[in-house]
Amino acid sequence: MIEFSTKWASYTYKGKVLDILSGIDLSCNQLTGIIPSGLGNLSEIRGLNLSHNNLAGPIPLSFSKLKQIESLDLSYNNLNGRIPSQMIELYSLAVFTVAHNDLLGPLPDMKGQFGTFNESSYEGNPFLCGPPLKNSCSEGDSPKTPSASFGEDHEENGFMDMGDFYVSFVVSYVMILLAIAIVLYINPYWRQAWFYFIGERSTACYFFIVDNLHRLTCFRRNT
After folding, report:
1. Sequential DSSP letters for 157-195
2. Which helix (H) or strand (E) holds 218?
3. Could you tell me if 118 and 132 are in contact, meaning their C-beta atoms sit under 8 angstroms apart?
4. Percent of the chain, pLDDT > 90?
5. pLDDT tens digit string along 85-114?
6. How far apart are CA 19 and CA 23, in angstroms?
7. Spatial separation of the C-alpha atoms in residues 178 and 185, rounded to whole Å
8. What is the pLDDT of residue 34?
């Protein structure tokens, strides 16, 4: 026998129904961090309750793949960013609440199941706008240009974009070289020490190469 909270109620299950029951209730556990995007791969799950925790970050875009889900409760956390517009494709969703978070921007279109949710599903998020809320969205707001889209993409990919990485690496390298050049220009003692060090290393490398070439030549003659 287990007790499972879903659709704003708590139910007790036992017997054969446990073989087909699929749901996760992690509410009231003081969980922190971001919601793992991997939860979106649980395609057969019917209920997911993450309410009353300290979860932060955006709602994973992968949640739009939970095609069988009937109840999704993300209320009373610290979630931010926008509600993914793709979630209107969750046609089995009967209960949905993101109340009391830090979400912002326009709500998904009132299509499918999202046309059945009222203000109580979104209360406690003063920066959300659009129907069924009374807050009107400004002209600059668009569901396809969320400020949290980078956070979601970054979470999905798990890595920094390689182009950004190369640019930041080159800029950092150039800045280090410039800093060294400025220090050597200002301080003549360090400049002298630097050139002395370079000269020593160059001489050592030269004799190392010459010595090894000589040994290699002798080895080939002997063989």
Report:
1. H-S--HHHHHHHHHHHHHHHHHHHHHHHHH-HHHHHHHH
2. helix 188-222
3. yes
4. 38
5. 999 999 999 999 999 999 999 999 998 899
6. 12
7. 10
8. 93
Backbone torsions φ then ψ of 159, nearest 5 degrees: -135, 160
| Distance from C-alpha of 143 to C-alpha of 106, rounded to nearest angstrom | 6
What's the one-letter identity of residue 55?
Answer: L
- The 10 Å Cβ neighbour count of residue 64 is 17
Between 121 and 140, the higher pLDDT residue: 121
Cα dist from 156 to 40, 63, 105, 206, 208, whole Å: 11, 11, 21, 50, 50
- Yes or no: say if 129 and 119 are a contact pair by the CB < 8 Å rule: no
**Which residues, other chains included, contact 169 with Cβ-Cβ below 8 Å and sequence gap of 6+?**
none
- The rounded distance, in Å, linking the Cα atoms of 79 and 50 is 11
Q: Shortest CA distance to 175 belongs to which of 187, 167, 163?
A: 167
> CA 2 to CA 13: how far, in whole Å?
5
At a CB cut-off of 8 Å and minimum separation 6, what does 110 contact? 131, 132
- Give 198's Cβ-side CA count (13 Å radius): 6
Mark 157-171 as b/e (b = at least 16 C-beta within 10 Å): eeeeeeeeeeeeeee
pLDDT digits (tens, 9 = 90+) for 126-170: 999 999 998 888 765 554 434 444 444 444 444 456 667 777 878
* DSSP code of residue 121: G
Residue 113: other Cβ atoms inside 10 A: 19
Question: Can you tell me the distance from the alpha carbon of 187 to that of 194, in angstroms, rounded to the nearest whole number?
Answer: 11
